[in-house]
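Internal tracking record. Fields below are filled automatically when a chain is submitted to the structure queue. Please do not edit lines marked as system-generated. If the sequence contains nonstandard residues, flag them in the REMARKS field before resubmitting.
Queue: standard
Priority: normal
Entity type: single polypeptide chain
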Amino acid sequence: MSTRAHAPVLAAIASLTIAGCTVGPAPDDPELAMLRDRYRDDVRCAFADAFAGLTEQQRNLLRQYHIDELTIDQLGALHGINRATAARWIAAARRTLLVAMRRWLVDQLGITRHEVDSIVRLVRSQLDVSVREITP
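SYSTEM-GENERATED OUTPUT FOLLOWS
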């Protein structure tokens, strides 16, 4: 099995922008480490739940793009669509995934969307669940 298949889940969807921001890894700070540890499982559960809620086509597209590393052109050919449509489908699947993750975290943790975005940025480099591990 390739190392790519075991890449962190949020790294696999790292091209998602959270509230329009792209943030690098958090500095080594004991408070931040504690917060990362506190929310890692919540983000993992939110991702798993959101991923399961995608349509079969959306799950397959994200797997093909991030795990199998198919290009937009290859996805277009595979699905009989042009590359622009393939890119739109990937973008839509990512948006749907992010919205569902945010909703889960807000509902389960009782926090604001802004706080959710901060939590996701904080733990995204630390999350160790792969798409392959949460899907049959």
